[in-house]
Structures are given as C-alpha cells and as structure tokens.
Automatic annotation (TrEMBL):
Role summary: Catalyzes the methyl esterification of L-isoaspartyl residues in peptides and proteins that result from spontaneous decomposition of normal L-aspartyl and L-asparaginyl residues. It plays a role in the repair and/or degradation of damaged proteins.
Keyword hit for S-adenosyl-L-methionine: yes
GO biological process terms on file: methylation; protein repair
GO cellular component, one term: cytoplasm
Protein name per Swiss-Prot or TrEMBL: Protein-L-isoaspartate O-methyltransferase
Keyword Nucleotide-binding: no
Family to which the UniProt record says this protein belongs: Belongs to the methyltransferase superfamily. L-isoaspartyl/D-aspartyl protein methyltransferase family.
Organism: Aquimarina muelleri
Enzyme Commission code: 2.1.1.77
Residue stretches in coiled coil: none
PROSITE patterns (UniProt xref): PCMT
Domain of life: Bacteria
Residues annotated as signal peptide: none
Length: 213
C-alpha cells in the first residue's frame, strides 16, 4: 500500500474533525495530518483509516481512536527532546505521533506478535523510537527512567505504582483507569512524594493485562 494525495486529503478532513472535537495542540494536529494511518491497519480496512474510530488490529488488539490519541498526547504537554514512555505499542500509531513531536520514545508491548511486527513496520516507515521493549507495562521500564511523560494506551484496573515512581518531578502520567469503562486520569508529580490528580471523562480501551504473552 502507498500513501497518496487522496489519503492526504482524508487526513486533512480527520484533522478538521479533531479540531471540531476540541483538540487545539498544533504539533499534535500536524502529526496526525502527516502520519499515514491506513498503513497501520490491514489493507482491507483502508477506508476506515481516516474515520475517527478505533479499529481491530492483530492479536485481538485495537488501534486507538484518533481523538483519543490526540487527547492523551495533548495531556502530556510534551516539549521537544523530552522522554516519554508508552505502555502498549500496539500498531505503533501513537508511537509515531510521539516521534513526530520530536520526543525520545520508549514503548512497551506485551504481545510478542505485535511487538515484532510493529518494530519492523515503524523502522520501514522511518520512525526511530529510542527503544521498543517486549515486556509488561505494569512494571514500567526502570532502565531508562525517569521520564518526562508516561502514556498508557490500555485500560488499567488500577494505577501501577512503578509508573508513578518512574516520573520525573513535574512529569505527567496519562492513564485511563477503570475496568469496563475508564476515566482518563492525569497525574502530575509535584515532588518526590506528592502527585496532583486530575480526571477527564470516560473512554473505552482494551484491558491492560499482566505479564507478557
Ligand atoms: N498505542 C496503541 C494502542 C494499542 S491497544 C496504538 O496506537 O495502536 C493497547 C495495547 O496495549 C495492545 O497492543 C496490548 O497488547 C497492549 N498491552 C496490554 N497490556 C499490556 C501490558 N501490561 N504491557 C504492555 N502492553 C500491554
């Protein structure tokens, strides 16, 4: 599959939809306007790629809805050159958005099949995350901690302690918390021991599962 002018036109429309839904961060909108989302999905579903919808990918997982990706990324308040840990590499779409923002990206995936496929695919597209890890996101990634931002792209039944402790002071954790429905939650580390918590409404994600597979 290729990226054509027709795809670019559809991306522009998707960006307009996200603006209507309240996304304002220019860098985030520009990243979504650039990334060929249709290439992150199986070829038969090309027509769905630029609708603002989540979609099934390999290993019973989903590529997140563009609005959700934009909303979570906006909450991170990223600065160029900062370090971000993503939990749930999945299709690699969110990883690509972070790469476009000039972030040093670390990402963890627990499904071996997706981990291998996405690693190859991102490098084919020319995206260079700092490190892709096959492991359990509940543990974070201590080797490269602390991070300016941590973004969890699966629904967490509770907030894993290692993720809070792997944030820098002033770092931000964006995590959907809940079982069937999740509340998008932002934690800002105020000091070694203090965190500010803010909540941003309901979202639906595939579950954050323990251990690797
Ligand atoms: N960021 C992805 C979203 C994929 S859906 C994208 O843009 O496409 C969530 C992903 O989290 C799935 O790929 C799932 O396998 C993964 N996941 C679930 N539990 C996990 C865990 N404990 N550690 C790491 N990844 C996990």
């Amino acid at each position: 599959m290729k990226d054509t002018l027709r795809h670019a036109g559809k991306r522009k429309q998707l960006v307009d939809v996200l603006i209507q839904k309240g996304i304002t961060n220019k860098a985030v909108l520009s990243a979504i306007g650039k990334i060929p989302r249709h290439l992150f999905m199986d070829s038969g579903f090309e027509d769905h790629a630029y609708q603002d919808k989540a979609f099934p990918i390999a290993a019973d997982q989903t590529i997140s809805q563009p609005y959700t990706v934009a909303f979570q990324t906006e909450l991170l308040e990223i600065k160029k050159g900062s370090t971000v840990l993503e939990i749930g590499t999945g299709s690699g779409y969110q990883t690509a958005v972070l790469c476009e923002l000039g972030v040093k990206v670390y990402s963890i995936e627990r499904q071996q099949e997706l981990f291998k496929k996405t690693k190859l695919f991102l490098s084919k597209l020319g995206y260079r995350p700092k490190y892709l890890s096959f492991g359990d996101g509940y543990k974070g990634l201590i080797e490269h901690a602390p991070y300016d931002g941590i973004i969890v792209t699966a629904g967490a039944p509770y907030v894993p302690k290692p993720l809070l402790s792997q944030l820098k002071v002033n770092g931000r954790l964006v995590i959907p918390v809940g079982e069937d429905v999740q509340i998008m939650t932002l934690f800002i580390r105020k000091s070694e021991t203090e965190f500010e918590k803010r909540e941003f409404g309901e979202f639906r994600f595939v579950p954050l599962l323990e251990d690797k597979n």
